[in-house]
Design brief:
The chain is an alpha+beta fold. The chain contains two helices and three strands, in the order E-H-E-E-H.
């Protein structure tokens, strides 16, 4: 199944890999500056929401933002 991502940027970062300490802070700060949401192709794929207003909106709207698997 192909996911329609529209204009959403795609990243391919595996956060489980060994990296220098606090590497993820620099990486995630750069992503947050560049855009509010990304599709990460790693580990089966998942959405990353990087900015507070969008995270808050997602948490307040479970009908749209869910972790349920849709077939």
């Amino acid at each position: 199944m192909t996911k329609d991502l529209g204009a959403c940027p795609v990243v391919d970062t595996d956060y489980r890999l060994d990296r220098p300490a606090f590497w993820h802070h620099t990486n995630l700060n750069a992503l947050r500056e560049a855009g509010p949401a990304y599709w990460n192709t790693q580990n089966g794929g998942y959405w990353m929401i990087t900015r507070y207003p969008e995270v808050r909106e997602a948490l307040q709207n479970p009908a749209v933002f869910t972790n349920d698997v849709l077939n």
